[in-house]
Amino acid sequence: MECSSWEGRSRPPPIRLHASMFRAQEVEEEEGMKDLSNTLREELTKKGANLVGFADLQGIEEHKRESMRFGVSVAVALSPDIIKGIKDGPTLEYYNEYNRINDLLDGIIAYATDLIKDHGFNAIPKLRKNVKIDEKTQSTILPHKTVATRAGLG
User: Fold this and answer.
1) CA angle 94-100-102, nearest 5°?
2) Cα–Cα distance between 110 and 81 in angstroms, integer?
3) Which of 3, 17, 74, 138 is 20 to 30 A away from residue 127, measured at CA?
4) Residues 62, 105, 107: CA angle, nearest 5 degrees
């Protein structure tokens, strides 16, 4: 997906990722999944997502993916001007932007969860308030980046 603010840049601005996971019952719902994918991509973009991707989570240990088969990855770009202002480490502007983006992503993922459930699927939103971080490793059991990579978002 191209974004007009990225034009003329060698690469897009940094992006924050969030994920939601959902379970589809069986293959006969494949057509419903296509409709849901299209609806999610369209609606989440309207809510502020720059990228929306869908990941097959099979092959990841079941307990790590909470028995969910699929994941939705949502990305929102950070402001290029704020990123340019970082010289010797994070700035107050970056901190505020980071929090703004995380609030936006939490809202988008909560909305995605409702849409998924409205289509008859189970969903577990991965929001700041419910993602557990291991204090020693500073990582989560299923990082957003893993879902994003499997969704083709990198």
Assistant:
1) 100
2) 28
3) 3
4) 100
φ, ψ of residue 138 in degrees (nearest 5) = 55, 40
Closest by CA to 57, choosing from 129, 130, 136, 144, is 144
Torsion of CA 14, 18, 24, 28, to 10 degrees: -20
- The total number of structural domains in the chain stands at 1
Domain with 24, as residue range(s), is 4-150
Is beta strand 51-56 parallel, antiparallel or unpaired with respect to 15-23?
unpaired
Q: Of 5-9, 47-51, 61-65, which one has max mean pLDDT?
A: 47-51
pLDDT in tens, 59-78: 999 999 888 888 999 999 99
CATH number, domain of 134, equals 3.30.70.1130
Per-residue pLDDT of 132-147, as tens digits, reads: 888 898 888 888 899 9
Contact 99, 79 (CB under 8 A): no
Start-to-end CA span in the chain (Å): 13
Whose structure tokens read 């379970």? 23
The reported pLDDT for the residue numbered 11 is: 42
